[in-house]
From TrEMBL:
SMART domains: HTH_LUXR (SM00421). It comes from the Bacteria. InterPro entries: AB_hydrolase, AB_hydrolase_1, AB_hydrolase_fold, Sig_transdc_resp-reg_C-effctor, Tscrpt_reg_LuxR_C, WH-like_DNA-bd_sf. GO terms for biological process: regulation of DNA-templated transcription. This is HTH luxR-type domain-containing protein. Signal peptide: none annotated. CDD domains: LuxR_C_like (cd06170). One of its GO terms (molecular function) is catalytic activity. Residues 293-358 form the HTH luxR-type domain. It comes from Nakamurella endophytica.
Amino acid sequence: MASPVAAGHPPQQIRFCRAPDGVRIAWAVHGSGPPLLISTCWLSHLQFDWESPVWRHFLVDLGRFATVVRFDERGHGLSDWDVTDHSLEARLGDLRAVADAAGFDRFALMAMAQGGPVAIAYAAAHPDRVTRLLFYGSYSDPLRESTPEDLELEAAFSQLIRAGWGREDSTFRRVFTSQMIPGATEQQKTWLDDLMRRSVSATTALLAREQRLRTSATDLLPSLSVPTLVLHARGDRMNGFGDGLHLAGAIAGARLVPLESDNHILLADEPAWPVFVDEVRRFLLADGAAGGTVPGADALSEREREILALAARGRDNADIARALTLSVRTVERHLQNAYLKLDVHGRSARAAAVARLLTGA
């Protein structure tokens, strides 16, 4: 499986921006294709995620067909650690700062895990910028329909963070790891155990968790009118499948894709992973390189759209072939088929095909 590194491109570019309250936020961009901004999940470290047996396949596979922008949440990873405000307003400011720094006028927005309320609030406030909305293992309210037993469990988790998060011994952190990736190998679990301590201090982990539990964006769901895809593992132990059902039912026109897995973080070798990748790819490329109704575009195959999207970013046939693990001759054949379907001919056919998809002309 080729990666962006193997295709001759740097794995990612790490940059920094300032949130409205001055907190420095680390963000990164990699891949090629339609822009996809990820509303960050609980644990991330832009540098170490590239070495991860748990996260690397997300980065490599999404980068095959999308320009992926992601960031470390305030208080985490390469972002400023000395932070006490983890409110929805503050986190929304972080997302706005990253979206502006990335420079895309319009983009798809993916909410992972606790990134849901922030993504919902952003999409509601900026409907002109969000082309598509995706949720993966996420929610609109972490305590929606919670029972007294659920609240007791949350209190127990807080005690575990206080007692054991910063210890060299990973016994306490393994409780969270076992919820996130119960089907993982020991190597993968050990890596996630270590990521927790590398990503955030015990003080911030506890403070951020307590403030996130008081965050809800449920009231904003009926106002969303953007195409929406909800992906959720049936056996997710961190955020139950009911959270995905609720999102899909509350957002007009949303589509739910149940993933046959018990893992909150899908692993590369489980059957649900290629389902996730294919659903996201189809969803992002459904409108071609850029939206708009183009004569002949409906007849294009998924692969033809994918190749034209890469061509739109200036990549030549050899580069496209390496990125998609194809031969140059296969890329040329797909392009020729696309030219016929779009009714463009001659030496300028490539430029004409790309321009028609980009402008809708």
